[in-house]
Amino acid sequence: MSNQGVEYGHRPALEIAVQDPDSAAAAIAAGADRLELCTGLSTGGLTPSIGLVQAVVAAAGPGSVHVLIRPREGGFVYTQAEVDVMVRDVQALAATPGVGGVVIGALMDGGALDIGATTRLVAAAGELEVTFHRAIDVCPNPLELLDGLIELGIGRVLTSGGAARSIDGLDLIAALAARADGRLEIQAGGGVRSQDIPALVSAGVAAVHLSARRVENIAGPSGPGGGAQSYAVTDPDIVSEAVAVLTAM
Questions:
Q1: Is residue 8 part of a domain?
Q2: C-alpha 89 chain-centroid distance
Q3: Residue 7 confidence (pLDDT) above 60
Q4: Tens digit of pLDDT for each residue in 111-137?
Q5: Is residue 7 in a domain?
Q6: Is 184 within the bounds of a domain?
Q7: DSSP string spanning 59-101?
Q8: I need a surface site. Which of 13, 165, 190, 238 has the fewest CB within 10 A?
Q9: Which residues of 149-159 are buried (b: 16+ CB within 10 A; e: fewer)?
Q10: Which domain holds residue 177?
């Protein structure tokens, strides 16, 4: 497993969170460098099915799709059975052609890094890139957790700097970037808007992560047993705006 991210030229990379093949294709066409694929984005994201992964890889192209591994909503402390499921999911993704990486996160009850679970997940990933997600934002000592991730060979951390929105976590993001010192990538995510990108890049991040969503209303029937009357899709205009900001820097 490589601990170095993909090179996207001299500018920081742009990652877009997507939930479906059409959104994936739209994000890549608008200039996104990398995608994080999940379902249930409104709950913080959940592991997608292999069928969805294959469809999104086909829509976006090989190497650009990084898949979230999170078996349920509700925190980041997992039982042994849940870790076993996560490991199986990672192994399945490592055997799926075109997947570029996985996005993981597991903590102990007190908020420290779950070294045992993380070690198993990294081993299961094989040659896939591994990103540690925003579980770092709820731990009591993120700099210490970062040291543990570096020791385990993880290549990237997604963080809002412990804030609801990354622009409000700039001090911690800068501290994490300084602590990492190029040994892994710090990627800013969490309520990122295009106008926030220059400040985040100045804090030392190697990439920014946006949801870039708009809401689509459902034309057909919905209601009890059928979910909400709307769903979120990628807005390519938001992606293009972010690309323009990054390119102009």
A1: no
A2: 16
A3: no
A4: 999 999 999 999 999 999 999 999 999
A5: no
A6: yes
A7: HH-TT-EEEE--SSSS-S---HHHHHHHHHHHHHHHTSTTEEE
A8: 165
A9: bbebbbbbbbb
A10: 13-248
Under DSSP, the state recorded for 4 is S
For 28, the 3-state DSSP assignment is helix
Domain count, the chain: 1
Q: What is the pLDDT of residues 208-233, one digit of tens each?
A: 999 999 887 777 666 676 677 767 89
Using only the alpha carbons of the chain, give its radius of gyration.
Answer: 17
Give me the CATH number covering residue 30.
Answer: 3.20.20.380
- Phi/psi region, residue 31 (left: phi>0; alpha: psi -120 to 50; beta: rest), is left
The backbone torsions φ and ψ at residue 236, rounded to the nearest 5 degrees and listed phi first, read -65, -25
* Closest C-alpha among 57, 76, 58 to residue 67: 57
- CA 235/CA 194 separation, integer angstroms: 13
Helix (H, G, I), strand (E, B) or coil at 31: coil
The verdict on residue 6 lying in a domain is no
Strand-pair category, 230-234 with 213-217: antiparallel
What are the percentages of helix, strand and coil residues in the chain, rounded to 5? 40, 20, 40
Higher pLDDT, residue 95 or 232: 95
Whole-model pTM?
Answer: 0.92
User: Tokens representing 230?
Assistant: 């709307």
Mean pLDDT rounded to a whole number for the chain: 93
| CA proximity to 71, closest of 56, 97, 49 | 49
Q: What is the DSSP letter of 164?
A: S
